[in-house]
């Protein structure tokens, strides 16, 4: 019998991660969620380690979630925001990382507007790196928390249908979910206007594309609305925001096509009454706040998997 | 194939040792009120369950039991060569104001118990914590001692104490003493 593949050193995307390791990461999030329910929401697992939260792009929930996750595991956290750093004076990513590494940082959490930035940090630092979102490419911990939320609801991802609706073209969340969910047995339907639906994603196993939201949602166990990135919508992608909302908004009318127990997800932040109706966002099917809570547990689990043990 | 060097406790002897520990717990605590038993993964859990049944039989009191995983509290997580599996911690009652008896199979360096104490205190503020072990094999690295011991067993560092319980290992209960080299050969 051959030895199992070594544990990946980074979480940049899901390429190197086997379904078994991904499942173990979700399983351990159960324990982390228990920790977050205790009077003392902290364990000493990462005591003595320093985690650098390196955010070269604005973020509220991901940065906060990672920072809290690291603190809950007793790591020291160095938060680096590019806007108030020497990056604004022209310092390169490489120089920034080398300076931070000289401070004896043990792991990096990287958010950057350029695809591939997390790979560069991994190369220059020689330390474990967690990609917290790089350009349009990947946002693996968001996909993990989405998968975890679906699994929490239905007990398993096997055979579950997840519809992701919105601006697929610019969404790293959609790409990461399309990569992750089929690895765990789920089927993914990506749906959006043709201008926002890159055909190359159809090549991913377990992924189908459609521009018809009713078709996407039919039989879905989970329906995820993506934020419409209004700042990117000046390239002739849409006729108008209203036109988009009329067809693609996740609302009660559209959800009527889904499975009776279907849940509603959104990675946040939301444009209420644009990609998702207030009723759907706040209604009984919504698991949006659960996603936020699960995000912290998942990130604790990711940190544990990357920073504990040397197999 | 070489087997264990010695059988330290047979099935019957294991049962008797647990019965004696149950009596000692009752004696020391003047009954079983406000007690709780928490087993440390893996074999501490069935031992805690058995002690609770024995206390119930002797005192007519249901003593709540829980299970504790100490993985996230280990002091060697940055050094371990493999990644420890996190198992379930389940303490479905408030430990505050209760006297908690931690239960484990073997007491050795004391590091597991140290981690368990930290984990337990994060769950609440018990009125007191006591320690019950089936075997105390010595070689303590921390100032920790057991309040209740099934069998004191002086050992060499090159030896392994192997506890087998019906619930976790099938067959009958036993405590065996092995040479580490023989046990490795057996497991190959």
TrEMBL record, chain A:
Residue positions binding carbamoyl phosphate: 61-62, 111, 139, 142, 268-269
The keyword Transferase is annotated on this UniProt entry: yes
- The answer to whether the entry has keyword Chaperone is no
The reactions it catalyses are: carbamoyl phosphate + L-aspartate = N-carbamoyl-L-aspartate + phosphate + H(+)
Q: Where does L-aspartate bind?
A: 89, 172, 227
On subunit structure and binding partners, the annotation says: Heterododecamer (2C3:3R2) of six catalytic PyrB chains organized as two trimers (C3), and six regulatory PyrI chains organized as three dimers (R2).
Main role?
Answer: Catalyzes the condensation of carbamoyl phosphate and aspartate to form carbamoyl aspartate and inorganic phosphate, the committed step in the de novo pyrimidine nucleotide biosynthesis pathway.
Q: Which protein is depicted?
A: Aspartate carbamoyltransferase
Please report the organism this UniProt entry assigns to the protein.
Deinococcus radiopugnans ATCC 19172
From TrEMBL, chain B:
Recorded hits in PANTHER family, A to Z, give:
BIFUNCTIONAL PROTEIN PYRR
Q: Name one GO biological process term.
A: regulation of DNA-templated transcription
**Record CDD domains:** PRTases_typeI (cd06223)
What EC number(s) does its UniProt record assign?
2.4.2.9
Give the protein name, as stated in the record.
Answer: Bifunctional protein PyrR
Q: Function of this protein? A: Regulates the transcription of the pyrimidine nucleotide (pyr) operon in response to exogenous pyrimidines. Also displays a weak uracil phosphoribosyltransferase activity which is not physiologically significant.
- Single Gene Ontology MF annotation: uracil phosphoribosyltransferase activity
Q: Which residues cross the membrane?
A: none
């Amino acid at each position: 019998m051959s030895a199992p593949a070594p544990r990946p050193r980074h979480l940049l995307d899901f390429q190197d991660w086997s379904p078994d390791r991904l499942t173990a990461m979700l399983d351990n999030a159960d324990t982390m969620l228990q920790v977050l329910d205790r009077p003392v929401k902290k364990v000493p697992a990462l005591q003595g380690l320093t985690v650098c939260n390196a955010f070269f792009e604005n973020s509220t929930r991901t940065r906060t979630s990672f920072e809290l996750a690291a603190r809950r595991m007793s790591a020291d956290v160095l938060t680096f925001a590019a806007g108030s750093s020497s990056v604004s004076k022209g310092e390169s990513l490489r120089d920034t990382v080398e300076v931070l590494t000289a401070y004896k940082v043990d792991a990096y959490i990287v958010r950057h507007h350029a695809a591939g930035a997390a790979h560069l940090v991994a190369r220059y630092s020689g330390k474990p790196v967690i990609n917290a979102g790089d350009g349009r490419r990947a946002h693996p911990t968001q996909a993990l928390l989405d998968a975890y939320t679906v699994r929490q609801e239905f007990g398993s991802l096997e055979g579950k249908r997840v519809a992701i609706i919105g601006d697929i073209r610019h969404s790293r969340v959609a790409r990461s979910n399309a990569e992750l969910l089929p690895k765990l047995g789920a089927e993914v339907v990506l749906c959006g206007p043709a201008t926002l639906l890159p055909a190359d994603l159809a090549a991913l196993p377990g992924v189908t594309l459609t521009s018809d939201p009713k078709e996407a949602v039919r039989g879905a166990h989970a329906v995820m609305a993506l934020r419409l990135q209004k700042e990117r919508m000046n390239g002739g992608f849409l006729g108008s925001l209203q036109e988009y909302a009329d067809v693609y908004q996740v609302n009660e009318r559209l959800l009527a096509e889904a499975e009776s127990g279907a849940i509603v997800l959104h990675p946040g932040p939301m444009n209420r009454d644009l990609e998702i109706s207030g009723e759907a966002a706040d209604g009984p099917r919504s698991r949006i706040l659960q996603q936020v809570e699960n995000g912290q547990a998942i990130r604790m689990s990711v940190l544990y998997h990357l920073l504990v043990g040397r197999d | 194939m070489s087997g264990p060097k010695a059988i330290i406790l047979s099935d019957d002897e294991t049962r008797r040792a647990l019965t004696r520990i149950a009596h000692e717990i009752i004696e020391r605590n003047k009954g079983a009120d406000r007690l709780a038993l928490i087993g440390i993964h893996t074999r501490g859990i069935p031992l805690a369950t058995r002690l609770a049944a024995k206390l119930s039989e002797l005192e007519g009191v249901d003593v709540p039991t829980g299970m504790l995983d100490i993985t996230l509290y280990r002091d060697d997580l940055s050094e371990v060569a493999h990644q420890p599996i996190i198992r379930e911690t389940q303490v479905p009652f408030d430990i505050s104001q209760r006297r908690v008896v931690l239960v484990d199979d073997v007491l050795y360096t004391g590091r597991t118990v140290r981690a368990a104490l930290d984990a337990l205190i994060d769950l609440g503020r018990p009125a007191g914590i006591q320690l019950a072990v089936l075997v105390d094999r010595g070689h303590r690295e921390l100032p920790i001692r057991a309040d209740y011991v099934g069998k004191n067993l002086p050992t060499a560092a090159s030896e392994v104490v192997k506890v087998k319980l019906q619930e976790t290992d099938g067959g009958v209960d036993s405590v065996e003493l092995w040479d580490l080299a023989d046990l490795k050969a057996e497991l190959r």
